[in-house]
Amino acid sequence: MKPAANPLPPHHLSTFRYPAGEPLAQLAAGGATLPGDLLLVTPALAFVEGGFNELPELEDLHAAMMEDGPTPAQRRVMDVLEGLRPDPTAAAAAGSAGAAAAPTAPLPSLSTLDAKFWSGRGKDASAPAFSSKRLMGLLGRTAASFDSQDPASMQARHQKPVGFVSLWPEYALLGHSCVPNTSALVVGDRLFMHATDELAKGAPLTRNMIGTAITSPLSVRQAAVAEAMSDLLPAPSATSSASASTSSASTSSASASTSSASSSAPVPASVTAEEGGILAASEALLTSCRCRRCQLEASVSESLRDTLESAFAWYEQEATATFSRANEEEDMSLLRGLLAEAETIVAEVEEAVQGEPGLDDEQQDWIRASVYDVYDMLVTLDELVNADGADLEYLQTCLQLIRVFGPGSDSHFEVALKHESLRVHR
């Protein structure tokens, strides 16, 4: 597989940095940026398409790369990437051997992640070898998959959406946040990444690494973050737990200055004590999200968190099953009853959110986003039951909430287009 040339080098990115207290390097903004600024256009190092509404497996990408063997330029890029996202098993072994916990290795230049940087070396017989096992391990930590390429372009071209799995080295080096500050759009094998928030120079760039769990309450999100990070970081060991007890003061100081999304507030004590298995001291740096949204949700009243958990449980345990049964049986009475329940649940959430002191409009949306699926269910039921009489404000609320966790995403585009179309025609 020949590496593609990069037609537009990243001009808002400068280099990597270690966010305070974080064990892994992340991409950072190279200068002050505004929402909508283009951060990166990059070709895939490897790319495999699936069929209609079909995501190919990671093994398909692995097989495609191994068929002719990765090129020397690809192997060079992957070697750099592996240094930034190493095998956690090997990292754990190094830690038990007494390696320093804090990152000390010099960070490479961003240009070394571009295959074109290495392709001028000819045969490059000294490029490191990648065995099948080594390649599969790296892809498991760094590859990305999407349901389809740019949906607007595909619709305009009357093309069916096809899923794909790919490796963009730069994209693999974004951190996680439950209020991500970037959006990604794929056209062909090119990934376009834009800023979705105002960013200062050096701000870590983030994306959603937990999928649909991002629309869940704090405890669910943190469990999903811990699972996602388990592929990138060694599991907490007795050695790390012992070291945590001897350096809690310095760890707490580092934790207080850390942020995935431009926040400098410390992790509230209630997070460590109560929410979703977040670990104490240095282990928390490895397994939890400390973005503005997570910190806010951990700091609100217990009654508000209980309301969110109750609403989420209703959606997961009752509403989805009832909705499926109503559709299968074409039972409008079931849908009307479910609509009444959804309206009651949403009213309870609104009362709890608006009654919480000290929250501005943006923060209220951060909290509501933790039960986005309930609001989305309300929109769907309202449209099915009331048709043209459906309340457009329900859809407007969903649009506001998508801006929290998926700005610039396919869902954001689709809901915004639907809302504008209905608003104009009504």
Description of the structure:
By secondary structure, the chain is mainly alpha-helical. The protein has 18 helices and 10 strands. Helix 1 (58-67) crosses helix 5. The longest helix has 28 residues, at 302-329.
Oligomer: single chain
The biggest sheet amounts to:
3 strands, antiparallel
- Overall, the morphology is globular
Structural Rg? 23 Å
Strand content: 5-15%
Order of helices and strands: EEEEHHHHHEHEEEEEHHHHHHHHHHHH
What's the count of strands?
Answer: 10
* Spans of at least 5 consecutive residues with low confidence: 1-11, 96-101, 237-286
SS-derived structural category: mainly alpha
Output mean pLDDT: 81
What brief labels describe this structure?
3-stranded antiparallel β-sheet; 426 residues; globular; 18 helices; mainly alpha
